[in-house]
Amino acid sequence: MRFNNSTPIYLQVIDKLKADIISGRIGLGQKMPSTRDLAQELGINPNTASRIYKEMESQGLCFKKRGLGTFITESDKMVQKIKIDMADQLTADFVEGMKKLGFSSEAMVDLMIKKVNYSETEEAENESSC
Amino acid sequence: MKAVVELNNVSKTYFKKVALNQITLNFAKGKIYGLLGPNGSGKTTLMKIVAGLHKHTSGSVLVDDQPISYKSKAMVVFMPTENYLYPSMKVKTVLQYFRDMYQDFSIAKASGLLEKLELNAENKVSELSTGLNGRLKVALAVSRAAPVYLFDEPLNGLDPISRKIVRNLIAEAAGDNNAVIVSSHLVSELEPILDRAILLKDGSVALNEGAEEIRIQKGKSVEELYEEVYRS
Amino acid sequence: MIKLIKYELQKKYRMFAAVVVATLLANIFLIVRAGEMGLAILAGLLGVGLLVLYSVDVVKMYSRDINTKTGYMVFMTPNSGYKIIGSKVLTALIQGFIILVFFSAVLILNSTIVYGFSGEIRFFDMDISYLQFISYVAIILVALILYLVQFVMTIYTSITVRKSVLSNIKYKGVISFAIFIAINYITAQIYAGVDHLFNFSQINGVASPAELLQVLLPPMLTATALCAVFILVSGYLLEKKINL
To answer: Domain range for residue C169?
Structure first.
């Protein structure tokens, strides 16, 4: 995994893991690698790997089964919550970014609707051409 | 956290030159330290003192609570940046040498690493390319099991693939029972595996902070901070 | 200690092999071509050649380790400076012994070829038994080895001083050489003193091997004692004052 060394690595990894959970790449209840293995896979420090799991545990994303290791949450509700949180964050970033560019609320919404329509038509075209 | 290496007001002077100036540093088990700085900042001198190859001029150096002596070398693994193996020795003889000289050396582990690192036991050291030499040095170091590991510029002169292999071997060597200290002037490649970054400037400690803490609190990478410190 | 010596000797393997091969070739050439005269030439050439080779190799054994990075292989091991120097001295003695045996074997072999095997050897005007001859040679060569090693130790010590105490000083090469000269002057005085003290009897005529041993024993013991002193001094400097 490639890192941006200027922002906390543990957060970058957690974001990636969240994305993997949402996309299904990591299944609910799946066993996660040990902290050492995780560190080795990603090329990070083992203590950072511990921090990742600790943080995720506090957010309810995973839990430890004593003697067996760390497991992803089995709760689908949790996954939905992550999705909503991420979507929320994406939107907040969007709004802030647009504000900085000087867009008004209506202009923002207009642009967004345009983009949504455009992507829907693109999808339709792709399906029909297959 | 117990310090396995303690430097207290350690100075090293050569006649007129001051290589290390009143350095006080503690290295704890279970952590990976980056000893960073440009050439001449004192990184190698500091490592060689802990390795017992140089004598400090003043201050105290403790390894595992004992004042440093030739016995400390049994607890310290030092990987020099230079190619230091006898050119006419075969790789397999080098492994036998290490097994005979160091009680904590696992020849089984080293032999296992040879294949993974594309090293041929029958080759003479002089026949190895720079990249293979670099890999061999690290393989020897990580096949020892000691409380202190010192890697001096382990990525120097290596191709990208060798660098990645070496970096991973170093990270793997780190465990709860040892302290790993890596020196480098190539910071970005090393950053993700570091617990703490120690920056040396002109023989003094300019910075000693946790790597993630730097990112969290200052919003900068260790490399960016490094550039700031040395620009002035 | 034994391990250190083992690896030192292992490193010399190629040199030993080359010497054996070269000697064999020279031997065949000289004896076949020049017979008796060839034996004398062989003895002379081999003697001088081995002496020079030995001295250079023994000095290199230490100077290489202390002056180049390959020395890290030895100096990173958990061995005290005394042990490291001691191992090199013992290696030098063993190496000297091997060369001694080799030299003697070559000469004895060749002289039986040239002279045939009789119980005696003509040595100038005297007939001496083989056993006596060997005893003489053995005693002289052992004394020679001891002295040579002691002499090499003066070189080792000078090198160590240069690398430790003098390491920051400008003219360290010159100064260490001056120290080398001084040390040897002092040892020469010591030998002279020992000789004056112990050998008041002159040997007249042909000395028996036992008498030869009696004369040579004091300087041999002196050489051994001096070696011990130099090992202690160099070892101390390596432990406390060296920066590699």
So the answer is: 2-240
Q: Total structural domains in chain C?
A: 1
Mutation to test the C interface, candidates B69, B88, B97, most C Cβ within 10 Å: B97
A chain contacts of residue B175, beta-carbon cutoff 8 Å: 46
The mean predicted confidence, pLDDT, of chain C is 84
B192 closest CB neighbour out of A6, A7, A44: A44
ipTM of this complex: 0.91
- Asked if chain B contacts chain A via 3 or more Cβ pairs within 8 Å, the reply is yes
Q: Which residue of C has its CA nearest to B89?
A: C11
- Give dist(CA B215, CA B196) in Å, integer: 12
DSSP, res C69: G
Question: What CA–CA distance (Å, rounded) separates B150 from A34?
Answer: 26
SS3 for C14? helix
Superfamily of domain B3-231: P-loop containing nucleotide triphosphate hydrolases (3.40.50.300)
**How many other C-beta atoms lie within 10 A of the C-beta of residue C52?**
10
Residue in C closest to B100 by C-alpha: C3
Q: What is the distance between the alpha carbons of residues C123 and C133, in angstroms, rounded to a whole number?
A: 9
Burial category of C119 from C-beta neighbours within 10 Å (exposed 0-12, middle 13-18, buried 19 and up)? exposed
Virtual CA dihedral for C242, B105, B164, B184, nearest 10 degrees?
-20
Q: Provide φ and ψ at C241, rounded to 5°.
A: -125, 5
Q: Which amino acid is at C85?
A: I
**Tens of pLDDT, residues C112-126:** 776 666 555 555 555
Write out the H or E segment, with its range, that includes residue B91.
helix B91-101
DSSP β-ladder status, B196-201 and B32-36: parallel
Q: What contacts C224, CB < 8 A, 6 or more positions away? A: C146, C150
CB atoms within 10 A of CB C160: 26
What CATH number does the domain located at A9-74 have?
1.10.10.10
Nearest CA in chain A to B188: A5
Query: C80-123, pLDDT tens digit by residue?
Result: 999 999 999 999 999 988 988 888 888 878 777 766 665 555 55
Is the Cα torsion angle C120, C126, C131, C134 positive or negative in sign?
A: negative
User: Which residues are paired to B6 by β-bridges?
Assistant: B26, B62
**Are the C-beta atoms of residues B195 and B33 closer than 8 Å to each other?**
yes
Residues of B in contact with A40 (CB under 8 A): 168, 171-172
Instruction: Say if CB C155 and CB C88 are below 8 A apart.
Output: no
**Which one of B171, B195, B221 has the shortest CB-CB distance to A6?**
B221
Residue C223 token pair = 């050489």
Q: Which residues of A touch B1 (CB under 8 A)?
A: none
Please judge whether B97 and C76 are an interchain contact, meaning their C-beta atoms are less than 8 angstroms apart: no
What is the residue extent of each domain of chain B? Answer: 3-231
Which residues of B are less than 8 Å from A43 in CB distance? 167-168, 171, 192-193
Do the beta carbons of residue B27 and residue B179 sit within 8 Å?
yes
**Cβ-contact B175, B159 below 8 angstroms:** no
Record the tokens describing residue C25, joined without a space: 């070739």
